[in-house]
Amino acid sequence: MKNLRKIMIATIVIFMMSACSIEPLDTENSSIDSENATANQSNQSNEVDDGCVDANPRVRLTNNGQVNYDLDVYIGNTQLGSVHDILPGETTEWIIISEGEILFAVSNDTYMDEKVLYDMTLCMEFDMEIGVDNQLTSAVPGVIE
Fold first, then answer.
1. Domain 52-143: which CATH class?
2. Where are the beta strands (DSSP E) in 27-123?
């Protein structure tokens, strides 16, 4: 009788431990799901938003300021493109650029000379904007739609 209580507690603990499982029951399904997710991610790197398939990155500048601006685009020491004398209220055409770490330099003679550096990949676009205060707004590259 003395040991009956200890035996019952031990039996309950053993029963509860055997009923609890650390590993989920559907491990096969979850591994298949993770493989599918990996495959979907690799497909998305080549095709984004159903509209872009391996398109080169691009950039443009909208000047909402009060003076003319210049846009120069570089990869390393090589200039990929430029547009000069962008008038107030004007938006440039898209400049197609290559993939890589791209330096975007926006400048004018009066207010500023600002440079931003982004790693651009396929299907990316950078829609830059000069605000009414003649400052570059805090835009970041996005996905070509």
1. mainly beta
2. 47-48, 52-53, 58-63, 69-75, 78-86, 95-96, 100-107, 113-120
